[in-house]
Amino acid sequence: MHAWPASEVPALPGKGRDLRIHDTATGGRITLDPGPVARIYVCGITPYDATHMGHAATYNAFDLVQRVWLDTKRQVHYVQNVTDVDDPLLERAVRDGQDWTELAERETALFREDMTALRMLPPKHYIGAVEAIPGIVPLVERLRDAGAAYELDGDVYFSVETDPHFGGVSNLDAEAMRLLSAERGGDPERPDKKNPLDPMLWMAAREGEPSWDGASLGPGRPGWHIECVAIALDHLGMGFDVQGGGSDLAFPHHEMGASHAQVLTGEYPFAQAYVHAGMVALDGEKMSKSKGNLVFVSKLRHDGVDPAAIRLALLSHHYRSDWEWTDQVLADAVERLGRWRAAVSRPDGLPAEALVEEVREALADDLDAPAALAAVDRWAERQNAEGGTDEGAPGLVSRTVDALLGVAL
Questions:
Q1: Cα 335 to chain center, whole Å?
Q2: How many domains does the chain have?
Q3: Rounded CA gap, 169 and 255, in Å?
Q4: DSSP conformational letter for 128
Q5: What is the pLDDT of residues 53-64, one digit of tens each?
Q6: Which residue range is the domain that position 224 belongs to?
Q7: CA-to-CA distance for 270 and 161, rounded, in angstroms?
Q8: Per-residue pLDDT tens for 265-310?
Q9: Share of residues in the chain with pLDDT > 90 (%)
Q10: Domain containing residue 126: CATH number
Q11: What pTM was computed for the model?
């Protein structure tokens, strides 16, 4: 599966700061110190309704991670999946009378278009669950043969009790885990499971649903969590720098994935940091496909909204915060974009070297994009009111905003 084209990232003078970021597992801020190649895995979409503003906010956060790392002169090895076979996708296809593969392909293509318009840097490897199945089956077999998985009516479940570190990503108690498992694709009420929290690794073929050859597992399709584990281990290996996604993935998805990988390899941890973006609401409720309260990037673009303004609207909120999309949020972003473009359109301006360092420091401090925007606001306000004599300043500001914030002025 191919990703989307990369926009050029301008080089800035000097060197960026190492990233200090909030780690869900420890509950505190840690300083990431990758080697020459920083490794990041971000969980991708289930392509049956893409791309709403919640998606965009999440991928914007991890785009900033990439940009901070690139500014430290590192390379970035970024991997993202597409869950192109799963219950919600199949259910939507049945509801709408569509072929599920055509639905997945159409929505994935739309997602690529949106990511391109928003100038999100693409992953090096963009992998669909279906194409990963040949690598998933042997992992499930290994877990089963090692006694870490068991069969139940043809389905194969992972035993969470085989990982001594289980629970260490989300740090939730058993009852909270059970409630979230029921809400987020698990089946804690299924009889005869060893532990209600045990997640499915391989679903035996169901009538009327797609299935693949599972070798000794029999025909079926993979569970949600093992999909990402197989892709991450194949392309990044254990101990990569950041596992990312929305805050609703901390449990069960990232918790279960970490346990799968740690039992498979005997190594710990799966990722050095677990980083989670907040939720975006509309009309007081979390924006979600099940509720249907979605604001789509493609619809805004079709209505003539500049993608740079959409990106500024996302950047105006700290990535870990939960916030609400409103018409005013977008209007403020459009106004800000106009002020910034007016400021850099002058042939010369106020010195900007200090601004570059302010933006770098803000982003290195747990991706504090609102602080970075405020720094550019101050420069633009003075620039529009007073002007300056530095011929290189407007260009330097434009390159900084492009390189570090992904906004083309």
A1: 28
A2: 2
A3: 5
A4: E
A5: 999 999 999 999
A6: 21-277
A7: 17
A8: 999 999 999 999 999 998 777 766 666 778 999 999 999 999 999 9
A9: 96
A10: 3.40.50.620
A11: 0.96
